[in-house]
Amino acid sequence: MKLIFIAVMILSGAGENAEAKVFNLKKRVISTYLRGTFALPNAGRAAFEPGFPATVSFPDFGGVNQAFSGEIGMAFHTGVSTRLGVEVVYPQYVNQLEGKNAGQTTLLSVTSQVYSVIPQISLEIPMKASANYRVFLGGGVGYAVTVLKNSVSLNAAGQATLGVQDYIEEGTSYSIMGHAEFGVEFGLVDNVGFSLEAGYRYLQPSKFTANRDAITARGALQTGQDIKNIDNSNRSINLSGPFAAAMFRFYIY
Questions:
Q1: Does the predicted model carry a pTM greater than 0.90?
Q2: Nearest to 225, CA basis, from 162, 169, 150, 146
Q3: Domain count, the chain
């Protein structure tokens, strides 16, 4: 409890002045922030399905269409605001999804996990501002490190059909992320601001490099090789889509 109290005091800038202040956005220069998003990506089953032959399907799952993220960083407000932060994007988790043949016989199950860690820089251009609120247009770019991990468990029918045992397909991709948004910030109490945003994120990692050796449904995969689909194309996941965001800013100067 003591550590939590100290952390809150630091974030809220309580050490700056013990007395309550009149909040004025125009006079604030530096802040830390916590930001979260809910997004609607178009990932589908691209993280795992292309690695299996056409004889294997996943009829009970429409695909990954949700993602959450959290971001932490610092911002500098001198007319145009500049944010420097690190965001973790976590798409919908797929847990023990059954893969079946044309006769609807279960062959295997897949647990698929994807996440991206994205250091980034963002700019916010004020469209209208007062002491208590501001309306802004924002955008930014980042360098996304995306990790893909598919754990595949096969039953006897699956082993006979695909000729492999249980395996883990894991790799990392490096790509550029971009985003644009419209937002509104207003003061809450003392030195704390709160903003709501709506925007679009572009994030499409591809060319995943294997992190471990495995014998997959496609064949042997060695560490350092590109993870390929059955048709020999590179594995690619479309995590782009619209998002809504909420952010707390803790002004320290």
A1: no
A2: 169
A3: 1
